[in-house]
Please model this.
Amino acid sequence: MINKLVAKIRKTNAPIVVGLDPMMKFVPKSIQRAAFQEYGETLEGAAEAIWQYNKGIVDAICDLVPAVKPQIAMYEQFGIPGLIAFKKTVDYCKEKDLVVIGDVKRGDIGSTSEAYAVGHLGKVQVGSNAFYGFDEDFATVNPYLGSDGITPFTKVCKEESKGIFVLVKTSNPSSGEFQDRIIDGRPLYEWMGEKVAQWGADCMPENGKYSYVGAVVGATYPEQGKVLRKIMPNTFILVPGYGAQGGKGADLVHFFNEDGLGAIINSSRGIIAAYQQEKYAIYGEDNYAEASRAAVIDMREDIAQALAAK
Model:
């Protein structure tokens, strides 16, 4: 799957992943009204609204980008109906030939980690049959329980030719409380980057430069990104924090390798709620998907210009 991601980035010339992180305040009133008319102001109604909202965005941007990243918490808040909407979103995106990164940030050990890996990336055995659960192409993973939490995921990645993105240096303001702590003379995120590179060395596809084991490094920390890029030369880096969190194209060049690959930049509400920004307000609420498409095109140009000037 990592080779498919690389191929689609080359084809679209857009190292961009759109975060499908729906909140009801982003969903146009017309979509909410239609969903509530059918299902009432219920969890089912909310789930239908976010599913229809997602579908409109995906239809508008699927030819421009290689990947999407649904954040499962935004669906879990609506209970079982929300999880059904998550699964419908995953399946629809795969129908559109988009690579799906499940932003699930799982982190546990033993049989629990195995169950997470199977549920999101692999197949679960039911009698004599085996079934995919959520069936994303990649999943985000929290590594701070150590290798015991990662090994079940890498096992499934090898079996299914899928991948994970391991949290190394996250984009949130308080990430430094732990990730920047100096351990034996170096910040913890550097030690984590080295470990990710080690896990990845055992998970290389037969053909291709990049491992099944990727890393998450926030756009809001470009200097750290420069260091981590050197530590993890064969690791694909998922970079959150573009746009709404303050990251911009000029901050991102150090996340890429000399081949212009090696990183994929995430924008969530900066794209899916673009119509609520002054820059794209001309589209109006009912044309929210067209506003999202315009935001993707602008983001693609911003990154391209930054890489050209590198």
